[in-house]
């Protein structure tokens, strides 16, 4: 039969068999294969050209551009020739042929211009060009086949079109070449991904070098490829900040709106590939139907083309699914990574604006470590929220064509499930909020503990804090159980459509057909429908699970939004002015005179706008170039007045003319960063050697640098733990001096300094010829050291929150105590560090924290190869019984769920149901509770049992990260992903077995498949393990930076360092982004590889069917193809769950390593002795030839020290800096290593007792008062909660130190002891008195005072001395002192020097004899 005239001039798409076998019509090819892609390209090119024209030239060569233009010219020439000959042949004429050819010509011409501009003004190959010519090449093939089928009539046209196709492919290849070698220098630092072509990015080829490095070596952070600019903190924050400013008018969800407004393109860019994925996915049922029809039909010559076409269709479909999946998830990952960068930057910028007191209730650490991470995790499936309903709608429509009314059954089940899920989702948001609040409470307590482990050790609070934090953890887990129960119900409901939809749908269809007498359910309709049900219910399951996740993410956004609205977000810190300070924008201010730097006019201040007013009637002016001293008793408001001058409080009355320039602020508690000493001094300023050396000399730090290993390049440690109190104060002062700020605000910076240092600093800075006078710098100094007052131009006396008197030193001198000249220091507290004591330079790396350096990465094989003991450790924590039960349940589920597919092949078994999935899911609640409690207990116990030297070397941020990030992964991700991974794995194994049975010869591919999977997982896991460890480790510096910023926010704001600290945050964030994003990329690479493997399985199966069609039944192939469809989804789910599981198990590995590698100060059980509860009863203490050090590799800090202290004796320990005073105390408390000799207390060798026992039986008042978040009762009572101290004893202690009145005033409603202790509202003197009250509560015969009076004024010192003499009359007292006012009240004086005891006698004997102590004492007397 001949071909009817005009058959090619219809849209078709298929031409009649009489014309050409298995081909498209010419009109369809012209309209769809030519007009649509060419028109789309021209529109996209028109949008792209303006931005390229404005862009600068970025390459140094035109060679590649010339090759591109040459290839385009060749393609254009062939197309013109083809058009000319096509118009001469009526056979090729259609209604769209001319338009199609012209559009293609215009497209190539436009491509020439676009190619030139893209080559010269872009750093990577053009995506538009690459995609267009790829599609053009692909779609040119059907036209070439058509023309050759029409040959020999149009042989010349067929040859020309073949040349066009080849030329188009050539253009595609040359357009895909990268340009990294010819980029200009300014653009050569771009990331590898950003400069790669579309195919290199989409197939993740650019990550292969990382895989190679990870497989063969140990990866470090510098091995991670740089992320491109759009994923970095600065770019992400700028966009979010602008969008945030535009979203202020919105009533609800401001931050959510701002986030999508800022990152709209990264979000929208994933829409097209997701739609493509939907299209390719729903091609599978049609392929199954076509395959089953092919098997059922009788072989003829007409359908001989179908077999190869089916194979090609399967290749295109699965390849399209793989590519669209890769592009879709890549864009989604980029969206999430950008959100992370923007939110962390925004939180940090807000942290820089908040009042320090607000950190008590708002923790940026929790927001960054928990809320942001959960947002990123939940937003993985953000596009499923809209794609799920689209997939379901398409599925229902296609299913209706197969099953009619019965197609509504899955939709009805799904709607019921959705309705049931809504209230659960809402409750989940509330449950998560309560859970996060409990996490924040635990982290606040843990962070406070880790930041002052010296005091924790000295006070023997290990057992109490272990019980306290463990209780907080148990409460946290209990609260989280409610959330997880809701999560289980979500999972159960979301699995109901998958479980019941197939059975219910086919059962209803069978009933309907039986009643109507309609057609039976044949294999083709059955398996096509089954695939549609699967494709419809799986997206619905994801959609149902996505809704509560997104609701939880919105809840996290709300917490961050609430935090960010604490202060105006529009304030710029690029050029920070005083008005940018907190609360100042609403203050009435007066104009300061040209001679003054700040003026108070009847000013009154409070911490909040509604809180009590603690300063009132403040009237005085600070003149430029003058030194103003502020003095007054404890609690008079000295520190508060200084903070008020910096804008850290709320002005309630009067007016204040604030500082007009930056201010160098030294708080009473020195702020020290975990960086080198030099970096602490210079801050973000440039290093000026000449000026730096002068500052070091002026602040009397030269000797200290000589005694510290590494000098000023040694690490200060977390919160300056490797430095003494005096050193920290002088470094803080040096920072202020180095800043060159015209005004310095110094809050009692001389309190912990020895006499020599005070004299040196006073002479070099405060004296008439000192630096302040000569440079004209203004100083405001709050002090209790009256010896500094003669250098002040003006002295302000505060009392009860107001100014009592203002005058010169001569005017107020009569009001000072008669012995004010002796209110100076004789020695500083001594170095409590490993870095001091002349540590040899060779040991420097062993004692310094290098958390932010590459050397901190443990380069061991376990990082690369992993270790199965981690899983054993986790299973043991969860409980072996419950874990075995879980695994057994999962295996049973996997077998019964997938094996039940065979009932479709045997319709008689159609009533068989899939088992419910809830039993395995329900087991994860007790698993989480067990593992969460056990692992946290191990981590906390290892931390509290670690020796003091461990904390000197370890960054607190690293340890905090384990309690925060690691436990977050263990609590939430690990159990869920472990169950999902095991269930998916069980499904995959069962499906593979069934495929081999049903596919017969397919079994021969299993060995090859196993080998491929083995090598892929080996290649992948070696890199994956290291990258996820680097991801966790790279977050630690972020935690440290946040903590240090919160601790020093007043200093940062006063000195106007917000911008450099924000820049530092961006640098750390960018480093953290690298492994974070790479972890996504390598996971997606693995998924792409597995998609290709599944494609291979499908193609092999279809090829076998085509080749051996007579040996297969339609039913068995239907089951096999549906299993492959499900196998692809289960394998994808398995890989997702497995990779997240690998990341989460890394947290377990870190905790296991920490627990196993952290040294313990506790002795072996066989070495320990026991003591009665009342020990020590007498306080008889003996040091016998003691030699001790801070570690096995550190030099001795105590050398052959022998000292006998009789019961009830009062001993004063004196000596210069580094003499061993504090080391003596630490040796007594078993906080340093005893190398030789012994220390006995009441005849008991302390080395034979547990360290915790020794510290819990000795009363200690440390130099820096330490208090934990909690109630006043909790902080006063060192005993465990099961043995509380009566209220009467606590109240008596507070009354004895004069604080009970203050406590009652702060709590007018009663319950004073059970109110939260807001220690930030207490002055330093009041805190020291509270620490003394804690000592009064404890019953012990030994009292240790570690410079307990160094930070109080002379009146408070007198009060404390009186209390000690009255309340501790019969106690043995060891007091490290640097003031000699009351030295004669002690029974004996121990003079230390270079770790040795040089003199030990009564003060009277030492003063009467020509002793070193006497010469020093009388020298100071003469210096009055």
Secondary structure: elements and pairs:
Blueprint: H1 26-54, H2 63-87, H3 97-121, H4 127-150, H5 155-175, H6 198-202, H7 208-216, H8 233-246, H9 254-262, H10 264-268, H11 271-281, H12 283-296, H13 306-351, H14 364-378, H15 384-403, H16 408-450, H17 453-458, H18 462-516, H19 523-564, E1 596-606, E2 613-623, E3 627-631, H20 638-645, E4 650-657, E5 663-666, H21 677-682, H22 689-698, H23 702-707, H24 725-738, E6 743-747, H25 755-766, H26 771-775, E7 778-782, E8 794-799, E9 802-807, H27 809-812, H28 844-847, H29 861-865, H30 869-878, H31 880-899, H32 918-922, H33 924-945, H34 948-953, H35 956-999, H36 1006-1047, H37 1049-1054, H38 1058-1107, H39 1114-1157, E10 1181-1189, E11 1196-1205, E12 1210-1214, H40 1221-1228, E13 1233-1241, E14 1244-1245, H41 1251-1256, E15 1259-1261, H42 1272-1276, H43 1287-1296, H44 1300-1306, H45 1324-1337, E16 1342-1346, H46 1354-1367, E17 1372-1376, E18 1388-1393, E19 1396-1401, H47 1403-1408, H48 1412-1422
Parallel strand pairs: 3-7, 3-8, 5-6, 6-7, 12-17, 12-18, 15-16, 16-17
Antiparallel strand pairs: 1-2, 1-4, 8-9, 10-11, 10-13, 13-14, 18-19
Shape: elongated
| Gross CATH architecture of the largest domain | Up-down Bundle
Number of helices: 48
Beta-strand content? 5-15%
**Mean residue pLDDT:** 81
Give, in spatial order, the strands making up the sheet with the most strands.
5-6-7-3-8-9
| End-to-end distance | 127 Å
Q: How would you explain this protein's 3D organization?
A:
Helix 35 packs antiparallel against helix 36 and helix 36 crosses helix 39. The protein starts with 25 loop residues before the first helix and ends with a helix. The protein has 48 helices and 19 strands. The chain is α/β, with parallel strands linked by helices and 1424 residues long. About 6% of the residues have low confidence. Strand 13 and strand 14 form a beta hairpin. The radius of gyration is 38 Å and the shape is elongated. It has four domains: 183 residues, no CATH class; 649 residues, ABC transporter type 1, transmembrane domain (ABC transporter transmembrane region fold, Up-down Bundle); 249 residues, Rossmann fold (3-Layer(aba) Sandwich); 130 residues, P-loop containing nucleotide triphosphate hydrolases (Rossmann fold), CATH 3.40.50. The longest helix has 55 residues. 58% of the residues lie in helices and 8% in strands. The strands form four sheets. It has a six-stranded mixed sheet with strand order 5-6-7-3-8-9, with helices on both faces. InterPro entries: AAA+_ATPase (IPR003593), ABC1_TM_dom (IPR011527), ABC1_TM_sf (IPR036640), ABC_transporter-like_ATP-bd (IPR003439), ABC_transporter-like_CS (IPR017871), ABC_transporter_C-like (IPR050173), ABCC_6TM_D1 (IPR044746), ABCC_6TM_D2 (IPR044726). One of its GO terms (cellular component) is plasma membrane.
């Amino acid at each position: 039969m001949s071909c009817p005239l005009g058959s090619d001039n219809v849209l078709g798409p298929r031409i009649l068999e009489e014309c050409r076998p298995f081909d498209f019509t010419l009109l369809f090819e012209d309209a769809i294969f030519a007009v649509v892609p060419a028109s789309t390209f021209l529109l996209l090119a028109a949008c792209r050209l303006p931005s390229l024209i404005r862009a600068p030239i970025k390459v140094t060569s035109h060679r590649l551009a010339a090759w591109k233009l040459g290839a385009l010219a060749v393609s254009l020439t062939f197309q013109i020739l083809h058009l000319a000959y096509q118009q001469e042949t009526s056979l090729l004429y259609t209604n769209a042929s001319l338009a199609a050819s012209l559009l293609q010509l215009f497209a190539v011409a436009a491509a020439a211009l676009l190619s030139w501009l893209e080559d010269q003004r872009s750093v990577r190959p053009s995506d538009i060009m690459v995609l267009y010519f790829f599609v053009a090449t692909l779609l040119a093939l059907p036209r070439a086949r058509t023309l050759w089928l029409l040959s020999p009539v149009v042989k010349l046209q067929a040859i020309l079109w073949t040349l066009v196709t080849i030329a188009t492919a050539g253009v595609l290849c040359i357009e895909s070449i990268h340009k990294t070698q010819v980029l200009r220098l300014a653009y050569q630092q771009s990331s590898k991904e950003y400069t790669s072509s579309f195919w290199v990015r989409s197939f993740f080829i650019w990550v292969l070098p990382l895989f190679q490095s990870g497989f063969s070596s140990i990866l470090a952070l510098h091995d991670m490829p740089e992320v491109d600019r759009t994923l970095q903190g600065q770019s992400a924050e700028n966009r979010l900040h602008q969008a945030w400013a535009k979203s202020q008018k919105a009533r609800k969800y401001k931050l959510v709106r701002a986030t999508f407004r800022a990152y709209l393109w990264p979000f929208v860019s994933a829409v097209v590939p997701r739609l493509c994925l939907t299209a390719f996915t729903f091609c599978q049922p049609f392929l199954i139907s076509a395959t089953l029809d092919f098997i059922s039909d009788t072989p003829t010559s007409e359908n001989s083309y179908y077999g190869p076409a089916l194979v090609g269709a399967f290749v295109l479909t699965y390849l399209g699914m793989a590519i669209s999946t890769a592009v879709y998830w890549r864009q989604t990952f980029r969206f999430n990574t950008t959100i992370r960068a923007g939110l962390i930057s925004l939180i940090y910028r807000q942290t820089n604006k908040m009042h320090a007191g607000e950190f008590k209730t708002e923790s940026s650490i929790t927001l960054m470590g928990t809320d942001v991470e959960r947002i990123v995790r939940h937003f993985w499936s953000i596009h499923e929220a809209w794609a799920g309903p689209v997939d379901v709608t398409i599925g229902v429509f296609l299913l209706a064509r197969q099953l009619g009314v019965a197609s509504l059954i899955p939709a009805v089940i799904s709607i019921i499930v959705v309705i049931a899920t809504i209230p659960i989702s809402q409750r989940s948001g509330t449950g998560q909020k309560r859970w996060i609040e409990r996490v924040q409470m635990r982290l606040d307590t843990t962070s406070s503990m880790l930041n002052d482990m010296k005091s924790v050790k000295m006070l023997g609070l290990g057992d109490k804090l272990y019980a306290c934090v463990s209780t907080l953890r148990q409460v946290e887990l209990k609260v989280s159980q409610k959330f997880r129960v809701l999560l289980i119900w979500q999972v159960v409901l979301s699995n109901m459509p998958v479980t019941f939809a197939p059975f219910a749908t086919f059962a209803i269809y069978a009933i309907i057909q039986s009643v109507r007498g309609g057609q039976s359910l044949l294999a083709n309709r059955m398996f096509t429908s089954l695939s549609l049900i699967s494709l419809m219910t799986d997206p619905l399951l994801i959609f149902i699970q996505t809704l509560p996740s997104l609701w939880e993410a919105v809840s996290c956004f709300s917490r961050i939004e609430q935090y960010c609205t604490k202060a105006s977000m529009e304030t710029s810190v690029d050029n920070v002015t005083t008005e940018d300070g907190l609360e100042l924008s609403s203050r009435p201010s007066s104009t300061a005179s040209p001679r003054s730097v700040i003026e108070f006019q009847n000013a009154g201040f409070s911490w909040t706008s509604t809180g009590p007013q603690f300063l009132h009637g403040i009237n005085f002016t600070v003149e430029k170039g003058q030194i103003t001293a502020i003095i007054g008793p404890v609690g008079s408001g000295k520190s508060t007045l200084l903070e008020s001058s910096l804008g850290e409080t709320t002005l309630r009355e009067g007016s204040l003319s604030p500082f007009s320039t930056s201010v160098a602020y030294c708080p009473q508690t020195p702020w020290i960063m975990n960086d080198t000493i030099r970096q602490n001094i210079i801050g973000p300023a440039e290093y000026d050697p000449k000026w730096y050396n002068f500052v070091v000399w002026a602040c009397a730090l030269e000797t200290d640098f000589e005694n510290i290993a590494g000098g000023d390049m040694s690490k200060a440690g977390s919160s300056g733990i490797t430095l003494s109190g005096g050193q920290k104060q002088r470094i803080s002062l040096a920072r202020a001096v180095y800043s060159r700020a015209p005004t310095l605000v110094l809050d009692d910076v001389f309190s912990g300094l020895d006499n020599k240092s005070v004299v040196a600093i006073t002479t070099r800075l405060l004296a008439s010829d000192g630096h302040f006078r000569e440079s004209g710098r203004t100083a405001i100094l709050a002090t209790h050291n009256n010896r500094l007052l003669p250098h002040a131009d003006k002295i302000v006396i505060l009392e009860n929150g107001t100014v009592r008197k203002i005058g010169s030193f001569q005017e107020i001198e009569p009001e000072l105590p008669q012995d004010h000249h002796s209110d100076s220091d004789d020695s500083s507290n001594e170095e409590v560090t490993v870095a001091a004591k002349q540590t040899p330079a060779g040991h420097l790396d062993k004692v310094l924290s290098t958390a932010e350096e590459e050397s901190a990465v443990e380069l061991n094989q376990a990082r690369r190869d992993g270790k199965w003991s981690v899983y054993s450790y986790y299973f043991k924590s969860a409980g072996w019984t419950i874990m075995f039960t879980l695994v057994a349940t999962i295996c049973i589920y996997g077998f019964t769920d997938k094996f039940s597919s065979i009932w479709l092949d045997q319709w008689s078994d159609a009533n068989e149901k899939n088992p419910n999935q809830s039993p395995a899911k329900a087991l994860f609640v007790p698993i989480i509770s067990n593992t969460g409690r056990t692992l946290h207990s191990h981590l906390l116990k290892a931390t509290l049992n670690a020796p003091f030297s461990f904390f000197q070397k370890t960054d607190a941020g690293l340890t905090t990260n384990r309690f925060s990030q690691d436990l977050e992964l263990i609590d939430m991700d690990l159990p869920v992903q472990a169950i999902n991974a095991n269930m998916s794995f069980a499904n995959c194994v069962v499906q593979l077995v069934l495929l081999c049975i049903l596919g017969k010869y397919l079994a021969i591919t299993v060995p090859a498949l196993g080998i491929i999977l083995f090598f892929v997982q080996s290649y992948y896991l070696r890199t994956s393990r290291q990258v996820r460890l680097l991801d966790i480790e790279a977050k630690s510096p972020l935690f440290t930076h946040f903590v240090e910023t919160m601790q020093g926010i007043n200093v940062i704001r006063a000195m106007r360092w917000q911008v450099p600290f924000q820049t530092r945050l961006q640098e750390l964030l960018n480093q953290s982004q690298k492994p974070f994003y790479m972890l996504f990329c390598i996971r997606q690479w693995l998924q792409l590889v597995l998609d290709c493997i599944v494609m291979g399985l499908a193609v092999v199966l279809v090829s076998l069917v085509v080749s051996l069609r007579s040996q297969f039944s339609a039913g068995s192939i239907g089951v096999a193809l549906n299993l492959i469809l499900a196998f692809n989804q289960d394998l994808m789910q398995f890989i997702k769950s497995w990779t997240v599981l690998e990341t989460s198990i890394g947290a377990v590995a870190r905790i296991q390593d920490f627990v196993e590698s952290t040294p313990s100060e506790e002795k072996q059980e066989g070495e320990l002795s026991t003591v009665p509860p009342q020990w020590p009863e007498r306080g008889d203490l003996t040091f016998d030839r003691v030699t001790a050090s801070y570690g096995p590799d550190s030099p001795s800090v105590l050398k052959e020290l022998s000292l006998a202290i009789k019961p009830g004796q009062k001993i004063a320990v004196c000596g210069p800096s580094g003499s061993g005073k504090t080391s003596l105390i630490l040796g007594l408390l078993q906080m340093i290593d005893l190398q030789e000799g012994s220390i006995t207390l009441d005849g008991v060798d302390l080395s034979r007792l547990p360290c915790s026992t020794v510290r819990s039986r000795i009363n200690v008042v440390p130099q820096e008062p330490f208090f934990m978040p909690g109630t006043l009762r909790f902080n006063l009572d060192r005993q465990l909660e099961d043995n509380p101290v009566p209220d009467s004893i606590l109240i008596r202690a507070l009354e004895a130190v004069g604080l009970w009145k203050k406590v009652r005033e702060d709590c007018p409603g009663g319950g004073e002891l059970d109110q939260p202790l807001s220690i930030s509202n207490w002055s330093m003197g009041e805190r020291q008195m509270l620490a003394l009250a804690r000592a009064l509560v404890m019953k012990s015969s030994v009292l240790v005072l570690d410079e307990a009076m160094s930070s109080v004024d002379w009146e408070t010192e007198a009060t404390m001395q009186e209390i000690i003499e009255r309340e501790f009359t019969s106690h043995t007292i060891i007091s490290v002192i640097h003031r000699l006012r009351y030295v004669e009240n002690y029974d004996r004086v121990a003079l230390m020097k270079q770790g040795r005891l040089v003199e030990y006698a009564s003060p009277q004997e030492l003063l009467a004899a020509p002793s070193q102590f006497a010469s020093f004492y009388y020298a100071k007397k003469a210096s009055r």
